[in-house]
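Field: sequence (string)
Field: structure_tokens (string)

Example rows 1 and 2, in order.
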Amino acid sequence: MASTSPWHHLYNTKRWYRLRYHQLQKQPLCEFHLKRNQVISASIVDHITPHKGDETLFHDPNNLQSLCKRCHDSVKQRLEKGGTVTEFDSEGRVIW
């Protein structure tokens, strides 16, 4: 999420902070790592389908997933750009 995006203000609302809090309480582990049977704490709440300012999609709890920063900043960004991820190494790093 770029800080200059027209929907950046949505991330600074009480409603978002509550959604984020509840998501991390419900799933405190990175969902990408869990798929590989790896236990890594999540710190980012990610929108599965990019909302692009659609407030209904933005606030939909079924459109949220918990990710670690590494997966959010690498794996998720690559997937959104049409790339693929094939494997993780034993340290949890992505193998392209």
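Row 2 begins here:
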Amino acid sequence: MQRALSIYGADRSAIAEDGPVALGVTLARLTPEDTFDRQPLAGGGGRWHLVADLRLDNRPELADQLGIAAADLATMADSQVLLQAWERWEEATVEHIVGDFAFAVFDARERRLVLARDFMGQRPLFYARSGSRTAFATMAKGIHALGDITPAPDLERVRDYLALTNMVGPNSFFAGISRVEMGEMVTLHADGRTERRAWYDWSAERPVRFARDADYVDAFRDLFDRAVADRMRGTGSIAAHLSSGYDSTAVVASAARTLAASGGRLTAYTHVPMAGVVLDEPEGRIGNEWPVAHAVAGLYPNVEHVAVDAADRMIGDDLERQFHYFEYPALNLCNIVWGRAISRLAARDRHKVLLTGAVGNATISLAGMERLPELFRAGQWGEWFRELRAAPGYGLTPYEAARFTLAASFPRMVVDMAKRMSGRSVYRLAQFSTLRPEVAESASYKAHLDAIGFDPTYQSQKRVRDVTAIILRRLDVHGLEQKGQLGAYGIDARDPTADRRLVDFVMNIPTHLFMHRGVKKRLYQEAFGERLPPVLFTRRPKGQQAADWRPRLRAAMPRIQEELDLARRAEGVAELIDLPRLDAALAVNVTDGPSSTQVRDSHRLRLLRALSVAHFMRKTDRRNSAGTEGSAASGLE
């Protein structure tokens, strides 16, 4: 297991054995305190045995609660702090710690194993039972290395992934291997029992109230700056993604300000399209985000701004690397091209931390349009009408704002009927998914979607906080992405916009802070308006990522055809994927003329998503000897 997982951490390897129990680590030193890490750890008079893959972001607060002196804290690894927390609070520890974590505690007295992950799943954790053996690892290859379980795709998980459903239940992408879900604690008992408990309650309301709106803005800004600063605790220089959007710009501005105080510098990477190609720019979109991004970088002298065109990369170039290091099929192969190119450059430039703003649209730049149905359903008619009149400030007509309200307020069946009567389309799985119609439209699968709470029509939500929860919980791949970046490039990708303190704050403040009387993204604007250039807040086209996807696709078509020809014979591919529909898409030559929504849906979305999933299934086909290539294994880091 350790040998297989060493690609994710080779700075230190250790194992502790006690009879039939063995705990191991392969450590990557990602923070200064990791120098002092001596896992596996034992505590509680020998009762507790702990291994952890973590970064604690509230070390000072924990030290105060646990009575750890500042001088002692300076030479304590995060794992040592975690052990002391466990000795104090045991299973309640997860409610006290903040950061990215996956850990395991073996209780020698009760003969039970406790596994836990942070609320956003920023570190992965898997487990399996095979015969008399119980195994766990941060990546599935750690369990595969034992030889008890042959790599194979979990067809139910792959099916739901193709449908873009929320990832509910313990199934991983690999058959026979379970995952600890985001914000979950799993207890494995010696008698074979498995207990699963969601320790983070997304439905719990924890109201945050201040006397003035300005107090909310100040608290929000302070929380965000703390989240960014905590994620810069590392062993080397810092880099960041920078687009023309709201989230990465706020991250870069905050990081630059923090680094400037100590004379530090930040490298910001922006994807730019290939030169000399025709860009696919839908109405209201712009394919080159460099000008706005450069205006942001230009405000901070300590920011080095680097353009990344990835001109030497084609769509699909990273499929093998994706499988080996990341162990999940990527949904957006067009963005993978430039995203991985940025990681390569960051590694070349010897950066250790790469800041992102991946989920900021659900937290720091939340639009909060669901305030409209909130007002309507609460009977606050006066305020609702005032917001309708102010709708142009949100980019809507009053009629569109009213329609949005009603769409969120009535049952889905009524909303769908109204859309059909008015000649508007209703979202269906077939629009964005390549699941076979026999699967997608079956009564049993529709019942399954209802059971897991997935709405394929994407009806508007009734409350602002529900949007944040749905976006953040939908796909559990954040941890796999972090591990893959670390293994493939030696980069620790960190997302301040996913900070638990920030999420709790955003989900529990009054919703007029997000939109009010025509001011769009009000909280964001008031918090960061003085840090960012005015162009960011003017009405402008939204950035279109990977706008050069068409020439890249044409160049990659022979390889795409070859891969799909190989993959169609793999286990489960023909049963799940609508291959005739893919063949029809392959027969269409995507030109540089104006692209219709249908072309984008058929090629950029359906074709390339199916390619990614089919490749993953081919690599994990039990009948394919290549399926075990690079699939060794890894234990907890």
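free_text_note (row 2): Residues 625-637 have pLDDT under 50 and may be disordered.
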